[in-house]
User: Fold this.
Amino acid sequence: MEKDFSIDNLVIPDGQELSFHSSDSYCVSFIDIVNSTRSTAQISGSKSVMRYYSIFLNTMATIAKAHRARVIKNAGDSLIFYFPETCVVSEASGFRRVVECAMNMLAAYNTINLKLNEDKLPSLDYRISADYGRIEVARSTISNSEDLFGSVVNVCSKINSMAPSNSFVIGGDLYQILKKSFSFASQEYSFKEIGEYSLGLKNSYPIYQVIGKNHSHHEANINTLRENKSTSSSVKSSNENEARIMLIEDDVDSATTFKAILDSEGIKLDVFTNPFDALEHFVQSLQVNYRLIILDIRMPKVNGIQLFHKLKSIAPNIKIVFFSALDATMELVSLLPGVNYEHILRKPATSEEIIRWTKKHLE
Assistant:
C-alpha cells in the first residue's frame, strides 16, 4: 500500500537546508536587462533565447568576478552580487572596485551588442545599481551555493528600476561613504541626484547616478563616428609600410623607455599618457594605419579594460595587447574576447623582451 505522505507524518531533519554563516555590511550590486520580455518576444526558438541571456549574464558575471565580487545568483534577466572586501569601510580599494566594476560593465555595452548582432539576436540595454548595508549571507547545505538576505538587497533591486538605461546608480548610504571617505570618488566621478525611493511613512531615500568624468564628451565622439559611418569598421591603409603602434601608458618614465626601445628598432610608436587624448585621437584619425595598440591596465579615470571595449567598438578588428604590472592575467584572459596569455607582457620587462613581444604581435 502506498504510504500517505501528509504534513502530519513529515519528519523534520536535524540538519538545516540553509546555514547563515556571515552577517556584516557590504556593497551589494544588481544588474538587469531593460525590457527583456519585449526583446525576447522577437526571438524565435528557446535555444536562441538562452543564447541571448547567456551572452549577457556570462559576460557580466565574468566582469564581476574580475573585480573580486561574489556572484550570488541570476534571477531571470538579472544578476545579484556583492563585494566581500567592502566589509572594511575604511579600505578604499574595495569600494573603488565596486565603481570600476560597474564602469567596466557599462563599457562592455558595444562588445555585448556586437556579439548579439553577430548571432542575429536583438540588441539590449541594461541598468546597474549598488548600495551599502547589512546583509545576512546564507549557504545551502545541499548545493553549497550562497544567498543574500537584508533590506539593502531589496533596496538595490528597487532603485535599479529607477535608473536610466545603460547607467549606474547608487543609494544614499553608498553615496555618503564614497563622497566623505574616499578622495578618488570626487576626483574621478561625478554624482547626480536623479530621484528618491520611498521608504514609507513619508520617508525617502536619495538615488544618485555615477558618471565618469570626461565620459560624456568622448562617448559623444564615438557615437558621432558610429552614426556617420564615415569610416570602415576596421583599420586599413593603402601603405602597409607606414604601420604604426599606439602605446597608452600613464607613467611617463615607462612610456619614454618603451618608445626609446622601439625607436632603436625603427618601429614607429605614438605615445599617449592620457587615455582620453588617445581615444579622441583614435576616433578622429582612423586613416592612420594602427596595426597594434598597447595598453596599460591601471590608469586614472579610465582603465585599460574600459579602453579596450571603447576601442573595439570603433574598430572591431584592431589588435590590442597589454603591458602592465598588475597581476590580472587570468582575469583578462577570461574577461576580454580574443585576448590570451601571449597578449599580456608583465612589467618590468627587458629591452629584448619588449622588442621580441612587440614584433611578434606585428606579424
